[in-house]
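dude i think i finally got it to work??
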Amino acid sequence: MQQLPTREYTSAGGVVADEATGRVLVLLRPGREGPDGRPEVRLPKGHVEPGESRREAALREVREEAGVAGLEIVADLGHQHVEFDHRGHHYVRDEYYYLMAAPPGTQPRGHEEQWQPVWLLWEEALQQLTFEAEREWLRRARAARAATTNLLPPSPGLAGS
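look at this
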C-alpha cells in the first residue's frame, strides 16, 4: 500500500457566542457536501501564518471567513491533534480554538464567498456541525461559557469531552 504524502500545519479558530441571543456562529458551505450528503457546517478556523500568534490567527480567520469583527476572546479552549486523508494527502493538523464573545447585534459582513454565516442555538449547532472534532470544540466552548459567565450549566449533550 502506497503511503500518502503528509502535510502538517497549525490552525486556530473560534467559537463565537452571542450572549444576547444565546446563539453560536457556524459556517454553512453550500458548495461542499459532508460525509452525510448534507452541505458542510463548520466552525471558522484557518492556518496560523508565520509571525502570527494563535490568538491573532483565530481572530483573523473568524473575521475573514465569517465577516465578524470586534470580538473578545473569553477563554482558551485548548488543543486537539487531528489527522485525516483528503485529496491524495495525509493531513496532520494541530488545532487551537478560543471562545469569543460577539458584541450585541453583531451581523456578519464581508465574509468569504464560500461560506454562509448562520447563528444557531447551541444545541442546533452541535447537531448540525459536520465533523466530530468541531463538535468537541463546541462542547468545550459551552463548558467554558458556563464557567466564565455563571450562566446556565451545560446540558448533558454538550458537557464533557
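The chain has one domain: 6-149.
im so relieved honestly
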